[in-house]
Design a protein that fits this description.
heterodimer; A: 231 residues; alpha+beta; 5-stranded antiparallel sheet; B: 246 residues; Glutamine Phosphoribosylpyrophosphate, subunit 1, domain 1; 6 helices; 10 strands
């Protein structure tokens, strides 16, 4: 006869306290691709729950091949991902004696992220640059590197507010009589990006403070900054 | 030097205190075409003669970029140079990742010096058959170093290695006190002037066989080849013409 020696685990609600390696630092990033340029806009507020860590902590990074990596999610992972990606772009340049192209870098980013399939980078990046024909290219990813080339994309805390807006105004979905193939001009894209963020700032507590806008074209990367509401 | 009983491997000293395998490796450096390096208060410059094995082939790469702030010129076994430059590039990137700052040039050169030393002491290994002139700019200013197969590393105001480099060194010795205040353009032309002294009779420096590299406080590591070297070669000729008319 076997005496019951196993002790039943105490019934406590410890599931709530379980430590997570991930932190969502909030904020939003969008990208719009055009005929000969691509635009990346991201806010600069960094949060942790109801606390603001910083009002100005950029989330989009310029890479040495004049591409821009826009990020959202966990800032520590985003920064590291950017450093790792930049290193791999440098290795490419050393090996091939020329800068890595945007499509190649896009694939490289996908592989880099999938390599961490078991403990992913908690980042939802968007990679923007000119493709090999000089046309604007934006690539959108999930946290494990699933990639898609797009003309418009938004990730982050306000993605559910902004993406539908982009679907309608940039891709012209659900508009009768509109031409969905037409790409936006720079001025149109800039206006839409700014309007998207000012609206999202009103409704999403994690989005606000400052807006950084990168425009990449044949002349290089041009950065602009706008103020957003600080509340 | 002649074959002797002390030159079979790198772990044997000769009675005179030489490790012949290391000396032989230095001979390989002397077989490479000349490279010249010189520095001012703000910039460091490399000038190199490129060799082409035959008319069908392209010219060999003499100057290699390591990072935005560092580059090397090569004399000797190009394959050994590639291995060392890959190592330097990895170290430079690692420095940025680990410490968030560009690799100090002195530290980089000591790292390859230590690597080379291993090959002069361990049984079964052979010394690297390449000499390097390493240029770079870090927070202590511009630097020029010589790396040799023995693992010895020295810092210079101006130096030259490779075939007939003594002529270049003599030229540099005569003028080095003026380097500090030279502009980048003057420094490059001065380097070409010294490099020209290493050319054999009947051969000229031209845009096909000349390579120029420079880095400085306000200049990322840049390498000029082909047509990009022509303006400086023209300045070299103008300088000669001016001297002739004096």
């Amino acid at each position: 006869m076997r005496t019951a020696t196993a002790v039943a685990a105490p019934i406590e609600a410890h599931g709530h306290n379980h430590w997570s390696p991930y932190v969502d630092n909030g904020g939003t990033t969008l990208a719009i691709a055009g005929e000969d340029y691509v635009l990346v806009a991201s806010d600069t507020r960094q949060s942790d729950g109801y606390a603001i860590n910083s009002r100005y902590e950029p989330k989009a990074f310029v890479l040495s091949n004049n591409a821009v990596l826009g990020t959202s999610g966990c800032v520590a992972d985003a920064k590291r991902l950017c450093e790792v990606l930049e290193q791999r772009a440098q290795l490419y340049q050393h090996k091939h004696d020329r800068q890595i192209s945007t499509p190649a870098l896009a694939r490289l980013l996908s592989n880099t992220m999938y390599n961490r399939r078991m403990l992913p980078y908690y980042v939802f990046p968007v990679l923007a640059g000119l493709d090999s024909e000089g046309r604007g290219a934006a690539y959108a990813y999930d946290a494990i590197g699933s990639m898609e080339r797009v003309t418009n994309s938004c990730f982050g805390s306000a993605e559910t507010l902004i993406q539908p807006f982009l679907d309608n105004q940039v891709a012209r979905n659900n508009q009768r009589g509109a031409d969905p193939e037409r790409l936006l001009t720079r001025q149109e894209a800039l206006k839409i990006a700014i309007d998207a963020f000012t609206s999202a700032t009103e409704r999403d507590i994690y989005t606000g403070d400052y807006l950084e806008i990168f425009i990449i074209d044949a002349a290089g990367v041009h950065k602009e900054t706008r103020e957003l509401k600080h509340d | 030097m002649f074959r002797n009983q002390y030159d079979n491997d790198a772990s044997t000293w000769s009675p005179q205190g030489c490790i012949f395998q290391v000396d032989y490796a230095s001979e390989a450096v002397k077989q490479g075409t000349a490279v010249v390096g010189l520095k001012s208060k703000s910039h460091v410059v490399l000038a190199a003669v490129k060799r082409s094995p035959n008319e069908l082939a392209s010219y060999m790469k003499k100057i290699i970029r390591i990072d935005d702030h560092m580059g090397i010129a090569v004399a000797g076994l190009t394959s050994d140079a590639r291995v060392l430059s890959n190592y330097l590039r990895t170290e430079a990137m690692r420095s940025k990742m680990v410490y968030g700052r560009a690799l100090p040039v002195g530290r980089a050169v000591n790292a390859i010096g230590d690597k080379a030393q291993i090959n002069t002491q361990e049984y079964g290994r052979r010394p690297y058959g390449v000499g390097l002139l390493v240029i770079g700019h870090d927070d202590t200013g511009p630097h020029l170093y010589e790396f040799s197969p023995s693992g010895v590393v020295s810092e210079y105001y101006g130096y030259s290695i490779g075939a007939r480099s003594q002529s270049a060194r003599t030229n540099l010795e005569r003028h080095f006190e003026q380097f500090a205040d030279m502009s980048l353009k003057e420094l490059i032309v001065q380097g070409l002037r010294a490099l020209r002294d290493t050319m054999p009779q009947g051969k000229q420096l031209d845009s096909m066989n000349t390579s120029i590299g420079f880095v400085g406080a306000d200049a990322k590591m840049t390498i000029l080849d082909g047509d990009d070297t022509q303006p400086y070669l023209d300045l070299l000729d103008e300088g000669d013409a001016a001297m002739d008319t004096e």
